[in-house]
């Protein structure tokens, strides 16, 4: 339900919010969180509506963190704010608090205040399309716009792994939104936050380390990676640009000292519905992310429960398992 609500709110305000610098996670994400929490709590339709309306007034967040990458922590916090505020809105509604009836379509409602106005057509997909099936999942760290570049580099490595010291030229062909503004083609990042948005860094790290997790991004200034990123030429690939945003592909070409050329290409970044992670890849990502936070037995139990979530009588057990040392 939360995905479906997000899908009828965020697309309608996307352009206006980009222009105003607003963050979608903390904005539409808050409303989606309220519905998710309300459904889980068993709220009736009237109280669900109040939860959504209350969440509208808690929606928050800007994307200034993009321009101040590495100098603030709000990028990750905003997702937490959205989840927390949505749950709080649902709790308030359950207690009896009421939100404004015009929270979405009123003169000062969400579509007007945070977008360019309301159109009843925005809500027509509800109950007809299921957004979860159309949602992408990030397999890597950093900015989503660098992921296709990472995936293309990993595809290239499948056809032969050129020694980093033998590489003399790297080309990255991508779509316009992946290479603008300028911080997306940053050859001189000053910190890992800036590095996470940089295509030259992403392709250099992927070719050298074979992955793009946080610890990989932290290696952005190692000598070999620093050398490689200055060999990168980023250009607009007209074919890939023409297919965007339906596709978010990338092509990577590497030339070595002996004249050999290696090429990797993807039409969709890994994790898009058309190029979805396998169950094994989802599990591997989860294990890697929580491996130093939870004991193996708890990790195994979480995976076992989530594999049959619809049969779990008490979701509280799953929540308790996310705390170190809690087995039940």
Describe it for me?
With 328 residues, the protein is α+β, with helices and mostly antiparallel strands. A four-stranded mixed beta sheet has the order 2-1-3-4. The protein folds into three domains: 2-134, 2-methylcitrate dehydratase PrpD (Orthogonal Bundle); 144-273, 2-Layer Sandwich (60s Ribosomal Protein L30, Chain: A), CATH 3.30.1330; 278-320, no CATH class. Helix 7 (147-158) runs parallel beside helix 10 (199-209). It has helices spanning 2-20, 28-41, 45-56, 64-67, 74-95, 110-113, 147-158, 176-179, 192-195, 199-209, 214-217, 223-229, 238-243, 279-290, 296-306, 315-320; strands at residues 167-174, 232-236, 250-256, 261-266.
What keywords describe this structure?
328 residues; alpha+beta; 2-methylcitrate dehydratase PrpD; 4-stranded mixed beta sheet; 46% helix; 8% strand
Layout: helices, strands, pairs:
Elements: H1 2-20, H2 28-41, H3 45-56, H4 64-67, H5 74-95, H6 110-113, H7 147-158, E1 167-174, H8 176-179, H9 192-195, H10 199-209, H11 214-217, H12 223-229, E2 232-236, H13 238-243, E3 250-256, E4 261-266, H14 279-290, H15 296-306, H16 315-320
Parallel strand pairs: 1-2
Antiparallel strand pairs: 1-3, 3-4
Helix pairs in contact: 1-2, 2-3, 2-5, 3-5, 7-10, 10-12
User: End-to-end span in angstroms?
Assistant: 28 Å
Number of domains: 3
What percentage of amino acids are in beta strands? Answer: 5-15%
Count of distinct strands: 4
Strand pairing plus helix content: what structural class? alpha+beta
The CATH class designation of the largest domain is Mainly Alpha
Name the shape in a single word: globular
User: What's the CATH H-level superfamily name of the largest domain?
Assistant: 2-methylcitrate dehydratase PrpD
**Helix content range of the residues, please?**
40-55%
Low-confidence stretches are none
Instruction: Give the CATH architecture of the largest domain.
Output: Orthogonal Bundle
Quickly count the helices.
Answer: 16
Mean pLDDT across every amino acid position: 94
Strand order, sheet with most strands:
2-1-3-4
Report the C-alpha radius of gyration, rounded.
Answer: 22 Å
Written as H for each helix and E for each strand, in order along the chain, the element string is HHHHHHHEHHHHHEHEEHHH
Largest sheet: 4 strands, mixed
CATH third-tier fold name of the largest domain: 2-methylcitrate dehydratase PrpD
């Amino acid at each position: 339900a939360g995905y479906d609500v997000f899908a009828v709110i965020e697309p309608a305000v996307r352009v206006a919010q980009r222009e105003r610098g607003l963050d979608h996670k903390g904005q539409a994400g808050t409303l989606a969180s309220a519905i998710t929490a309300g459904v889980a709590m068993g709220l009736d339709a009237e109280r669900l509506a109040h939860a959504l309306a209350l969440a509208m007034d808690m929606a928050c967040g800007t994307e200034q963190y993009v321009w101040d990458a590495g100098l603030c922590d709000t990028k990750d916090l905003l997702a937490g704010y959205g989840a927390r505020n949505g749950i709080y809105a649902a709790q308030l509604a359950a207690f009896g608090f009421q939100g404004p009836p015009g929270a979405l379509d009123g003169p000062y409602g969400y579509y007007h205040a945070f977008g360019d106005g309301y159109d009843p057509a925005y809500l027509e997909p509800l109950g007809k399309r299921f957004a979860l099936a159309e949602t992408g999942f990030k397999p890597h760290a950093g900015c989503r716009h660098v992921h296709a570049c990472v995936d293309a580099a990993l595809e290239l490595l499948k056809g032969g792994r050129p020694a980093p010291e033998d590489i003399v030229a790297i080309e990255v062909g991508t779509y316009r939104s992946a290479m603008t503004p300028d911080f997306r083609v940053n050859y001189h990042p000053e910190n890992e936050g800036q590095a996470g948005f940089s295509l030259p860094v992403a392709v250099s790290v992927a070719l050298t380390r074979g992955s793009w997790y946080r610890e990989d991004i932290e290696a952005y200034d190692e000598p070999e990676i620093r050398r490689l990123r200055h060999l990168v030429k980023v250009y607009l690939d007209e074919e890939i640009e023409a297919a965007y945003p339906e596709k978010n592909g990338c092509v990577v070409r590497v030339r070595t000292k002996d004249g050999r050329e290696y090429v990797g290409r993807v039409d969709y970044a890994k994790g898009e519905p058309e190029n979805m992670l396998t169950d094994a890849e989802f599990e591997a990502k989860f294990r890697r992310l929580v491996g130093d936070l939870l004991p193996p037995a708890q990790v195994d139990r979480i995976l076992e429960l989530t594999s049959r979530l619809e049969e779990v009588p008490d979701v509280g057990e799953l929540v308790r398992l996310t705390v170190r040392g809690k087995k039940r």
